[in-house]
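hey can u check if this looks right to u? its 252 residues, i copy pasted from the old doc so theres a chance i mangled smth
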Amino acid sequence: MTKVLMHGCNGKIGRAITRLIDSQENIEIVAGVDPYLGVPNTYPVFSNINECNIDVDVIIDFSTAVAVRALIDYCLAHHKPAVICTTGLSEEDIAYLKEASQTVPIFFSANMSLGVNLLIALAKRATEILGTSGFDIEIIEKHHNQKIDAPSGTALAIADAINETLDHAYTYRYDRSTVREKRPVKEIGIHAVRGGTIVGEHDILFAGNDEFITLSHQATSKEVFATGAIKAAQFLVNKTPGLYNMDHLLDA
């Protein structure tokens, strides 16, 4: 039985993960961490991760960016693997996470949806064919009006994957209203839309002369992220120290 500590258990996705794990065998949540304690749970919940005294096999994190450093410190102190699903991390946070992965197994992905990660793979393949053939590349992401970070971590991950395919020769443009000029050739536009209860939508537009190709992914429920996080947690148990991502999971 895989014993899980759910970090951010009382958030929307944390609760979705709790519901899914309750219906599965060979995995259970034995403890949770969340500063908000107003949600009833079948497992003990601590307001601070350093208060947790329950042994676990792996940690799933769906919290906030400001809480991730303390979580990594806890992982290092107790030698626990962690699946980091929180978005909006700073470059310093990501560097700290990578350093910690030399000591403990860390799974980190900007998006835990299996479909989104397939979308990224398809975008890289499309870029190999279209990126050097005069096609402009634009990324449009849409999320609910409560999302804090913009553009989304997934949109940036898509852009980074495309740019890696293009030998990092392209720059990113987030706001075209600041500069009045024609669109540079080696540019990736990234646009954020916030409204209503949109779970998550990402479109990648390849715009050429007289033809246009769009790759799209839509999430209609937060459970797609919860499912990916659970699969990642089961994958990470008993792994050696290192930085793992969805590519490793999809190839497993």
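The helical segments are 12-22, 65-78, 91-100, 114-130, 153-165, 223-236, 246-251.
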